[in-house]
Design a protein that fits this description.
Structural class: alpha+beta
CATH class of the largest domain: Alpha Beta
CATH superfamily of the largest domain: Band 7 domain
Largest sheet: 4 strands, antiparallel
Shape: elongated
CATH architecture of the largest domain: 2-Layer Sandwich
Radius of gyration: 28 Å
Number of helices: 5
Number of domains: 2
Low-confidence stretches: 49-62
Mean pLDDT: 81
Length: 179
């Protein structure tokens, strides 16, 4: 008789445990999801970028710029850049790249370096872009050891350094072809 009574008590506790688990799934989990959504909304409202704050050496001026404050500047020609050779590789590899620069029209240096004046620096900018892309090998790019974003960030850093200004706030590739 005592064994049957113990079995009934264990069965009752099991049923209570199952009911409490169901209540928790339908009451606590949705409330937690709403709380996480609220935290996300608040962090986006105060422009808190979780996880990467202060982690980069690159001073990106383009991260919080409104689209209406950006003027694109296309480097008209597609650049054909010879990639760095790998030791015993038989053929040469090239990258065909179309580059578009984003200019921050609210930057103090925009009057000095606007789209019209940048045209006179086109050769210098193409040379910087050529040198940056030419430091990578075909395999590094193809195997994603270095990404297009890494190359764009490095080009941005070089151009900002060349002009000693953050008027150029982003670099994008309108064409990207590896041969």
């Amino acid at each position: 008789m005592k064994k049957n009574l113990m079995t009934l008590i264990i069965l009752a506790i099991l049923i209570v445990n199952t009911v409490m688990t169901g209540v928790m799934m339908f009451v606590v989990v949705p409330a937690n999801q709403k709380t996480m959504q609220l935290v996300g909304d608040i962090s986006s409202a105060i422009q808190l970028d979780l996880g990467i704050a202060g982690s980069g050496a690159l001073s990106q001026g383009g991260s919080n710029i409104a689209l209406s404050d950006i003027q694109p500047y296309n480097i008209e020609d597609q650049l054909t850049v010879k990639l760095k050779s790998e030791g015993e590789e038989s053929g040469d590899h090239f990258a065909v790249v179309g580059v578009t620069l984003s200019l921050n029209t609210k930057n103090d240096d925009y009057k000095t370096y606007n789209a019209e004046t940048l045209a006179s620096y086109k050769g210098l900018m193409q040379d910087k872009i050529d040198k940056v892309i030419g430091t990578y090998t075909y395999n590094e790019i193809e195997t994603q050891a270095v990404t297009k974003q890494d190359i764009q960030d490095r080009i941005l850093e070089e151009l900002q350094s060349m002009f000693n200004s953050q008027v150029i706030c982003d670099v994008s590739f309108s064409t990207w072809l590896l041969q």
